[in-house]
Design goal:
This is Anaphase-promoting complex subunit 2. Pathway: Protein modification; protein ubiquitination. GO terms for molecular function: ubiquitin protein ligase binding. By secondary structure, this protein is mostly helical. The chain folds into 4 domains: 1-191, no CATH class; 195-272, no CATH class; 287-378, Orthogonal Bundle (Arc Repressor Mutant, subunit A); 386-424, Arc Repressor Mutant, subunit A (Orthogonal Bundle). It has helices at residues 3-28, 37-55, 66-93, 95-101, 106-116, 122-136, 144-161, 166-171, 173-192, 194-222, 256-272, 304-312, 321-328, 332-344, 386-407, 413-424, and strands at residues 287-292, 297-302, 318-320, 348-350, 355-358. It starts with a helix and ends with a helix. 14% of the residues are buried.
Length: 425
């Protein structure tokens, strides 16, 4: 009746799986220079023999009947498939190291090939290997010679693993792409010079580091209680100032809640990067806003100045141009140009001139507006233009000349010229 099997099959299966996992981990992990399939096949047969005596109550040496043979076949198939999947998964995790040690690791490759022929784990292998190559090999800390050496080993190992070359073609595409990029970079260095390309490398590293730092800070915020999390998501691009072109300098006083969020972000950054801090450029960046009004919601991506303007209307529905200019520390002429966006989006209206009010309910009788971009805003760049840089230098010279004339009673033109030459040098 096989009553014992029916009652205890789940418990026995659980115990068997645990024993196989423990044995595979203990005997096989990190060992690539010998095959383990034969040893495990013998061990599995011993386990099946024990199961036959337990479940079928057979004495040693007795021949099993047809029903018993079917039961043993089912258990043998189950245990073998579990072992193949488990062993293949472990070798897939270690495939980067196996490729690195090839041909000494050839027995491990042959074992993996045998298991893959009996399990459906090729996609798992491709995903895992591509990820391992990108994380452990394809980054600036690895020498090009080491990348090429491992690529050659990968070709040999994956040919042994898959004679159709499909795995090799798909899994090694990131390496081929990376090597092409290295060649392009070397050509650019020959064309523009090593020093200029070093600046570009630092810029790219800054962008990658910024993504990593933002992810770390976001993970830390997710661990906080709901009431302690920041009211909005803040993502920073952290630049190495010495390697980037000069950035525009404009005054902007942000609302208190924005400044608090920036200060909290800076403290988290200082924990990650000891002895470093952030110098925020308040006027640069992009803000994704949803402006909720009485009868509609306006979604826009705007500059920090535009966002700061509309945030002031959150607590007070009417502002004069002079009041906003004083609150934001932005010149009135420049601020009026910034207000154009909100006027043309139908969020604000100017009435009387110089006074701006929120339009909570859309004016139905108002003709459809076309959004016009001010010429100063169109194609606006965060980088300081050459004219801006020259103007800043001239302002510095003029300040130095004023200081000379103020502190010294009289100077000849030749004396002023010689002192300026020393100052410029």
């Amino acid at each position: 009746m096989n009553l014992l099997e029916r009652v205890s099959a789940d418990a026995v299966t659980h115990v068997l799986h645990g024993m196989i996992e423990e044995r595979v981990e203990w005997r096989c992990r990190g060992e690539y220079e010998r095959s383990f399939l034969g040893d495990f096949q013998e061990w599995i047969e011993k386990v099946i023999g024990w199961l036959s005596r337990v479940f079928l109550q057979e004495s040693a040496g007795a021949l099993p009947g047809p029903a018993a043979s079917s039961t043993l076949k089912r258990w043998r198939c189950h245990v073998q498939m579990f072992f193949y999947r488990l062993y293949a998964s472990m070798r897939i995790e270690e495939l980067f190291s196996i490729i690195r040690d090839f041909p000494e690791s050839k027995p491990a490759v042959e074992d993996l090939k045998y298991c893959l022929e009996r399990t459906n784990q090729r996609q798992q292998l491709l995903t895992s290997l591509k990820s391992a190559l990108e994380l452990r090999l394809l980054h600036p800390g690895v020498n090009t010679s080491d990348i090429i050496t491992l690529y050659i080993s990968a070709i040999k190992a994956l040919r042994e693993l898959d004679s159709s070359m499909v795995i090799l073609e798909v899994a090694c595409e990131p390496i081929r792409k990376y090597l092409r990029e290295i060649r392009n970079v070397e050509l650019l260095k020959l064309r523009f010079g090593e020093a200029q390309m070093h600046y570009c490398e630092v810029m790219l590293k800054d962008m990658a580091d910024s993504r990593r730092i933002n992810a770390n800070i976001r993970d830390e915020e997710q661990k906080l209680p709901e009431q302690e999390r920041p009211p909005f998501s803040l993502v920073a691009i952290i630049l190495s100032s010495e390697f980037w072109p000069p950035l525009k300098e404009e005054k902007l006083e942000l609302p208190g809640q924005i400044k608090e969020a920036m200060e909290a972000y800076a403290k988290k950054y200082e924990k990650l990067k000891a002895m470093r801090t952030l110098n925020w450029k308040h006027h640069l960046g992009l803000v994704n806003l949803e402006v909720e009004l009485a009868d509609r919601t306006v979604s826009l991506s705007v500059s920090p100045v535009h966002a700061a303007v509309i945030l002031h209307f959150q607590g007070k529905s009417t502002w004069t141009l002079e009041e906003l200019s004083e609150a934001l520390k932005v010149p009135a002429a420049s601020l009026r140009r910034k207000m154009t966006l909100w006027l043309q989006q139908g969020v604000l209206q100017e009435e009387p001139p110089g006074t701006f009010t929120v339009i909570e309910e859309e004016l139905k009788d108002q003709a459809e507006k076309v959004v016009l971009i001010d010429s100063d805003e169109e194609g606006d760049s965060a980088m300081a233009s050459q004219a801006d840089q020259k103007e800043e230098e001239l302002q510095l010279f003029w300040t130095y000349i004023q200081a000379m004339l103020t502190n010294l009673e009289s100077l000849s033109l030749e004396r002023i010229h010689s002192m300026l030459k020393i100052f410029v040098m």
